[in-house]
Amino acid sequence: MAVSREGARLARALRQRLSAQQSAPLCARGFASTRPAHNATVKDDGIADIESTSAFTAPQPDQNIVKAFEEARSRDHKERRLPGNRYQYHPPKYNRGPLHPIQAPPSSDPTARDFVPGPFSFPRLKHTYDSTIAPDLMTLTYKHIPPGTTPPESQKGLLRQWDGSSPYHKNRPSRGPRGGGSSRLGIIERDITWNNIPEIEAVTINSYAPLAADNKEYLHVARAVVQAISGQFPEVTTVKHNVIHWGVRKGSKAGAKTTLRGGAAYDFVDKLVTLVLPKIKDWPGIKATSGDSAGNIAFGMQPAWMAYFPEIEFNYDMYPPKLMPGCDIFIHTSATSDRQGRLLMEALGFPFYGKVTH
């Protein structure tokens, strides 16, 4: 402060000395020629526009203004807390929309109902996918399109357009083809781009034990096997239709299934490719025609192959060999066709055999 005051004092002294010594104006001669004749002899102080004080000597803002600003800022950043009368220990169970006064906490909050702790580790296969597989897939499937190229209408004639006879036809999507069932269009394959690289979304493990309707021990073993190889508590599946020839009744419990997502799915696929499948000597691979035309591929495991899982191999005596079930493994991917799904699976290490028909 003392330095700033001294600087202001020296500026005032210099201004007075310059005004006393100079007899001509400090501004340009061209501007002086435009002035009236009676103001030609008036001295023009060029430093008159300079403020006598600097920002350091400016007075501090009013404390009431500072307090009001801090209160408004804290009011904007204040978290929306749930009322303590009804949601003291549990957040709302149902989401009633973004305009409802009571909102559930985000999934990252430990008090949320959908909170999942973790992740505690990064899957090795996921790291390999991000660093190697994804760039390779994008490079191998790259299609150069010169600027200004008009894309061909590959779906021309398959989808019917609205005739515009009604105002409700505006901005509506194209109509489906005539007929129903298998004649309906499936998912349309999209080109692989930097933001559309196929990856694993989920893995479903299903174990079917048809003899569990008469002997519950088959169901217990199936649940134990699925829980051991997946690390999740499975849910019991029931039969939806009667099959008289097989002795299957509707509503009977006949298996267990579970779905892995995120890091657990990548860990399970890594375990399959690295430890389980290489031990099967007579396993030819996945059939090339496997798939649901939407990028999802499934294959089965025989009961004799279940012993190759490390969770079952080290404690195989706990599972009765005659009650050991097989399982079906469904790998859900973000691919939009079986071709892209096979490309991803081959990059992950799954072999395929047979002739590819599509």
Automatic annotation (TrEMBL):
Species of origin: Hypocrea jecorina (strain QM6a) (Trichoderma reesei)
Gene Ontology molecular functions: structural constituent of ribosome
Keyword Ribosomal protein in record: yes
Keywords associated with the record: Ribonucleoprotein, Ribosomal protein
Record keyword Zinc present: no
Protein name: Ribosomal protein L5
InterPro entries hit by this protein: Ribosomal_uL5, Ribosomal_uL5_C, Ribosomal_uL5_dom_sf, Ribosomal_uL5_N
Boundaries of every Large ribosomal subunit protein uL5 N-terminal domain copy: 196-249
Membrane-spanning intervals of the chain: none
Large ribosomal subunit protein uL5 C-terminal domain residues: 254-352
Family: Belongs to the universal ribosomal protein uL5 family.
